[in-house]
Structures are given as structure tokens and as C-alpha cells.
């Protein structure tokens, strides 16, 4: 077989469906199968992967990406062909793997869509073709379904004996190495009429040795619902002495199972396997026969009869598959793009689903994400909401409100996030750590919500604060606190304290202003967005996020003035301790004095030591706005004058960091240029970069960070391990946080360029990411954005990345220019020539004001941004009230709310 003929994926439908020839000729491929009920699976072209509902409940063995090709413990479906021997319908047998590079190798093709996976294997020597379709049904059942259709692809009758096999790990990931054997002694294994079920006697993990109720099972039936002919429930008996899961004795010798039809024999104390033997069948040429396999996890013993009634026939499988396709298509198609590149439009559908996958999987439970124990981090809560504001806006208000309950009174936040919305858990591991960027993200996301909704009342709603043993941004401990006291901040009298959302926002942005290092930038603390910069906790400073906080302070100031003009809000109420952070009630702090800032912050910590008085002060809203604006202006001047790196060749950029020795990180050194993309993104995205500085930054990025092979690097080569800055520099250059193309920061760079009017440059950035991600020969990933592109151009850590939210946000609000302005609809397109189709049109379907809109842009003259203006706008074919701006138009919210909610409304915009 000529491996050079292997091509990349091709889209085959209008809902993101794609096809890939010989998918098993690419390593590390995996596909997500998941539902809202908590079933999280992964499947590869050879049916490897895992199925789980959480860290402590794995049906199959937990795995990392290297296990996809090294481990033999995978789903499998075997066929013993009379006169020819054993063949794996998944292409996953020792014999087939050995023949992989020869002419005897299987032909295979992958087809996939939202969220279903089908792989077809055929082998001319065996005369058999197998089509295996996998999905997790939408809904709340924790099941994964697989249908196998065997077809006689030869010219003679074939007699086949099928055997479905799924290893049953049935316990916590913690037991994969430690206690692997001893936990198998807990297994209680049951066989029934349809399969094998395991319910370990105890939950043997870090939570303690408790009675276990969770059950795990593998069940199956022929397509018409007929029961299996027998069962192999014990792994060592199934594989035989000296055997293995990819060459098991029970299949190779076609042995008869000891446990026959109907099951009823129980075993205990061994590693389990869901081995289901089906009765032999004879197929004429072209004839097919189907089987359904059900993998299930339940909170108690499984009601097998009820489950098989629901899932155990081909008819039921096919019906549920269509239901699941519709469920995911409806979710993804809340946002649709139409440009001059239909493949790019289909690819964006996969980008659109990635934030949903991130919400469901957290940061774990996919093979590359072999870290963490599930769940999401603080930053994830806010960035994932960026996409949800576009895709699922009805849910976002409550999510944002709940998230604010994780803020501490010292301006930091909880780091352990519970399963329920708004659930934050006190740190039990005694690991005091603060990521200095965490306080910056909530306002950015909230401001997007306010622009989309106009819901300024949200700012005045009251929410609790989080409390645990850590205080003063984890520099001190509250020895009077224990877990029995609960995690709500209380007043001196013991009552739970609540403050407005606005108070939470102010607190998170004011405390960092005073928390500075020796160069008067905000301290790096445990790290910022780049978790790899985790070794500068004493003297490290994040100039990049000082820019972000500075822009926040200015935008909050403007928001306060809007509150006054729009809502008549004359004053705001804050906890009395917070007056120390504002100059409205104090002698002014010299912002150039680092010791002065520290003294003021220490006074605040002393005034609010993990509790507050409960007394509120009423402050003039204009004075608070003035205070924030003064702080922002001081920071902008400081950054522009003190952190600008002037290059010898005339361009320049912002220094992004100081290391733990107090040394400036970026600049031109004898050993070469040191530069980070992060250090440029946040001055550009906000207000810190002056207009005249922007062209110099772009030139410097192109010269020092852009690489034709892998796009925009996160940083230039620093050379050597930087133990005074972070672990990232222990990684090989060109990998992960050390000089790879990190999608998240690349997209934010593109977003920032669009925001500042550099559309051609922004388009180049987004086009680079798209080209890298879809170059299958190098990237070797399914459609979507990877977390990063490594030095070889391979896409890494696919599906679970916050960059998908940012790309979706950028495409909707910047490229297509469909965005909110305090509830009104602002149209401000920044399309370039390549994005219009042959008729000069580009369109987007999206939600705004709880109505579904299709916004169609029609260019009648130039297609180049900057050469067209909005000439006219119609809504459903009629005139619409407009407020015009430079290159933009605003449709008042009242006009949109008068429209029917069930219809698709068309806004046509003529560009001339």
C-alpha cells in the first residue's frame, strides 16, 4: 500500500461531516463522544480510547495519548472466519498490526460528524467488510453505543463467529498503577442474558475505602435483539496463558465460552472483560448482519432488561443516532458562517462545538489532556462563557452570577471549582497559589454580556464572597478558620456578607493595582495566563497583564459613567474597607511610590482579614470613575515610557515580564532577541499601546515571532532553562509554552489587530491558524483548533482549548462585526475580499436579543475593508431605524424586541 497517497480529511456534507481515508495511518488521532449527562468517551480509528464519567469512575482503563498505540486494552470486535482464522473488525489484532506496512493491510475509511464516529475496515484476503458506528446518545444516560455491521465482501459464502470484547477496568484512575491488583480483588462480576457487569465491593481511592455502588457493564445483542450465545467475563481466561488482548486464545482458537446463553454465573476477584460471544452465522456474498454493543455506567446495579429494551436493537440504535445528530446540529448551527470558502465554513462548525466540549470534559478525559482530575479552572469559567454568550446566551447570566461567588475579599479567587454552577471548594491540599491574571477576565466577559444584553441591573445584584484559610493573596493563613465554618465570607457578627457584582469587579481590579513589584508593574505571583511562567513568585512581574488591568480600570470607569447617564445611578455602595483602595476618601497615594502602594494594600488587608464589618459606604459614582481613570492613565504612561523596547532597526515592542531576579525579560541581548507574543497582545487589545506604537509592534512580531512553518510563536528562543521565570523554558523550544504556535494567544493577537483597525494583518493571523490546522499532512488532526502547533507542525491537545471561544468571538464580533453595544445591535463588518463569495456576499447566522438573525453583507463595489461603507440596511425586507457611525450602523434593541422569537429574521446590509 502506497502511504504517500494518504490524503487529508474532506468535508462531505453541510453539517460538518467529513471523511478520511486510511485514518489508522496517522498516529494520535482521537474523536470525542459525550453527552450532557456526564458520559465522556474517546474513540480512535482502531476503537481505542476510554469511557468514563469522572476521575474515579472509568469503565475502560484510563489512558494518555501514548497508550493509543502502545496499549492493547481497547474496544474490539472479533470475527473468526471458518477456514481463514481470526480478524479484528476494528483492525486491531496482532496479525493486522504486523501486516500494517504490507499489501495485506486492511483498507479503512473514517466518516464522522456531530458527534458520531464510523470506521469501515475491509480485507480482501478474509473477504469481510466491517462498519462500526459509535456514539454517546444525547440525554442523561451514561452509555456509549456501538453498532457493528459485518458484510460478506467476497464471492463465496462465509461462516463467521463474532465476539465483542471491551476491557472492564471499573474503578478510579488512581488505581492504574498503585493497587492495580489489589483493587481487582474487589471486583464482583455478574453475567446476565446480555452481558457482563462489574460492581466493585469498595471504592478504593483517596476518598477512603467506602462501600461502592457504581456498576459498569458491557452488553450486546444481534440487530434484531437476540441474546449473545455466551460470555467471557474474566480477562486472563479470555486471553489464555501467554495470550494478549490483541491475540486472545478464546478468539484465535474459537473456543466455546464456559458461560453459555443466558449467563447467570457470577465471578469475583479478577480483572474483568466484557467478552460477548455471538452465535455463528453464514453470509452469502453481499449479505450483512448487525450487532449492537452497549457500554454503561450506573450509580447502582444496572437494569439490564430496561436498558436493552431501550438500546439493544439496530432499529433503536439508528433512531437514537439520528436524534443525537439532530441534537448536536441544533447546538452547533446556532452560529453559521457563509463565506467564499465552504471548507472554512464547515471547519468553523467544529470550532463552534469546541467550547461546548470544554464545558463537558473540563480539562481532562481526552488522551492528550493527561493532567488534572477533571473540572475546569477559574480562567476557563470566564473564557468559555465568551462562546456561550453567542451559542447559549440564555444560560450565561446565571453562570456569570454564580461564578462571582468564587471571589475572595483580598481580590483573589477560589482555585478548586465544584461540579455544580457556583460551587467553589476550600483548598484541602495546602497549596497556596494565586494566578495574577485571574482577576482580569471576569470583567471582560461581563462587559461582553452587558453589551449583548444591555442588562446594567446585573451590576447591582448582590452575591456572596468565597472564604477559606488563605488570605492576603495566599501570603497569610487564617488560623481561626476551619472547613466546618463554610466557604462564605462573613461579617464580624457572623452573618454571610454579600456585595454587588460591581463591588466584586472593582475589588478584583483595584487590589492588583497596588500589588506591584520593584518596577511598579503588577506582581507575577504564581503565574499569569501562561501557567508555564511559574517560577517568578517573589520578584517576577507581568507587564503584559498590567496592561490588561489598566485597560479594565479605564473601561470600568466608562461603565460607571454609563450607569449614571443610562440608569440615573448617582452613587454606588461598597464595603467600607474598600475605601482604602480608592483615593475618593483618602489622602492620595503617590502612584510612583512602590512602598506607598504596598503600605496602602497592607492597610486594606488588615482592615478585611478574611472577614468584613458588614458596613457599607455610599460613594459618588463620578468620583469613583475619576479615581479609576486616573489609575488607568498613570499605568498607560508608565507602560509606554518605561516598558517599551526600542529595536536597533527601528521597530519596537513592549517588554512583557520581569523574572525572579528582577531582570527585564525582553529586548535585544548579546545572545539574541527575546520577545513574547503575550507581551504585545494585551497592550494592543486594550488601550495601553498608543496608536503610533502599533505598526512597530506588528513589524517586530513579524520579524521575531512569525515562522512560515508553524505560524506565530508564543516567544522567541530564550536559550537555556529559565529557573528564575518558569518551567516553560524546560520544554524543548517549539513545543507547548516555549515557542510553539499557541492557538489561544495567536487568536487573541488577531482579535487585538481587528479591534485596533488592522484588519489585513488580523486576517493574516486567522488565516495562518486555519491553514496550519487543516494541513493534515503535517497537523494530523481532525477538523478544529488544537491547543498548539509543535515544531513539526503537528496539532497537539485537540478539542479542549480556550482558543475556540476566542476564534468564535472574533469571527462573530470583529470579522462579521455583529456585536452588542449595551443591548443595541451594532453592525461593523471587517470582511476582506477573500471572504465574499462569487456573488459578492458573506453572511452569518447568529442569536441576538433572543432572536435568530441572518446578517447578509452584499458588496456592490470594492471588497476590501476600508474601501466600503454601510450604504443601506433592511430588516426582513423593510426599512429599519439606524444610528450611523463611521463604518458601522446601530439597530436599537426596541426594534429587535418587537420581532417574533420563533422566526429567522434577515438583515441585509449593502456595502458600497
TrEMBL record:
InterPro entries for the chain: 6-hairpin_glycosidase_sf, 6hp_glycosidase-like_sf, Gal_mutarotase_sf_dom, GH65_N, GH94_catalytic, GH94_Enzymes, Glyco_hydrolase_94_b-supersand
Residue intervals of the Glycosyl hydrolase 94 supersandwich domain: 108-312
Domain Glycosyl hydrolase 94 catalytic: 327-562, 625-817
Keyword Transferase on entry: yes
Molecular function as annotated in GO: carbohydrate binding; glycosyltransferase activity
Protein's name in the database: Cellobiose phosphorylase
Source species of the chain: Paenibacillus etheri
Pfam families found in the cross-reference section: GH94_b-supersand, Glyco_hydro_94
Biological process (GO), any one: carbohydrate metabolic process
UniProt KW keywords: Glycosyltransferase, Transferase
The UniProt record lists the keyword Glycosyltransferase: yes
